[in-house]
Design brief:
two-stranded parallel sheet; three-stranded mixed beta sheet
Length: 197
């Protein structure tokens, strides 16, 4: 998404199906992957179709993007590039042609397998982790959905030197919740499952 945001103007103005900026996005993904240890096996999971149960959300987002593009046109007419750039960032979305392009691009890379999720990549990643098919999730964004889906280990903020911030959900998040729940209460109560070590 960072790559999209930095090229928001070009992406929004790009004709559907054009691959002009796909190389920029692929380079961003490739740079992230190169930061991982050579011994890593990488599974790149892309969003698939829109989830029907989120149709209202998708409609709201599409309307918001269209409104932002209208504001871009107003700002451009007023020769206000700062405002136009702001609304370009609100209007940007991943071009539909990008998924097929990235599949073709990464087929040549023996270290990377690519999966297109049935719907959202987050849910697919959670399923893969729950089944023991992946060890850790690398997030390009600060996505809290991973916590909601109960993924155990998520890597955020991958730096150029390969360092990153890892959140171990059960240790870092749920462990703290359990510790808070275990605090002794001043009111007498019956023992619960939380009292067990």
């Amino acid at each position: 998404m960072k790559s999209l945001m930095s090229n928001a103007r070009d992406v929004c103005l790009e004709v559907e199906g054009s691959v002009k900026h796909h190389a920029t996005f692929a380079r961003y993904v490739q740079n992230m992957l190169h930061k991982l240890p050579e011994s890593s096996s990488i599974l790149l999971v892309l969003d698939g179709a829109q989830w029907p149960l989120k149709a209202a959300t998708h409609t709201r987002r599409r309307n918001s993007r269209e409104a932002a593009l209208a504001r871009v046109m107003e700002a451009n007419a007023a020769n206000d590039q700062t405002t136009a750039d702001k609304f370009f960032r609100e209007a940007v979305t991943v071009p539909s042609s990008f998924t097929s392009w990235i599949l073709t691009h990464f087929q040549k890379n023996n270290r990377v397998d690519v999966v297109v999720a049935a719907f959202e990549a987050d849910a697919q990643l959670a399923c893969l982790e729950a089944n023991g098919q992946i060890d850790i999730v690398l997030s390009a964004a600060e996505d809290s959905d991973f916590i909601v889906y109960g993924m155990r280990r998520v890597m955020y903020n991958l730096k150029q030197d390969g360092s990153f911030h890892e959140v171990a959900i059960f240790d870092d998040v749920l462990g703290k919740i359990v510790k808070v729940a275990r605090r002794p209460s001043p009111v007498a109560r019956r023992p619960s499952a939380l009292d067990r070590p």
